[in-house]
Amino acid sequence: MKNEQGTSVQTHQDISALLINHFSQIALEPDINREEAIRDIMTSIPKIITKEQNKYLNHPITMKEVEQAVRDMPNGKAP
Cα–Cα distance between 12 and 20 in angstroms, integer? Predict the structure, then answer.
């Protein structure tokens, strides 16, 4: 294996450090403003949820609703 400078890496410690650095760089999220791209994509997706449905879907869940959902589950099923 070679590092970014082209030098061969031989020891376990150096190879480990090289791999950790490599995969850490892959996992980094670039600092890019994606708002315009998201807007462009969203215009292509048909709106099938009405404002009323969206309001209902985003309302806070009450403890009563949670209790009812658990009661409605079949016996022997994990919540």
Answer: 12
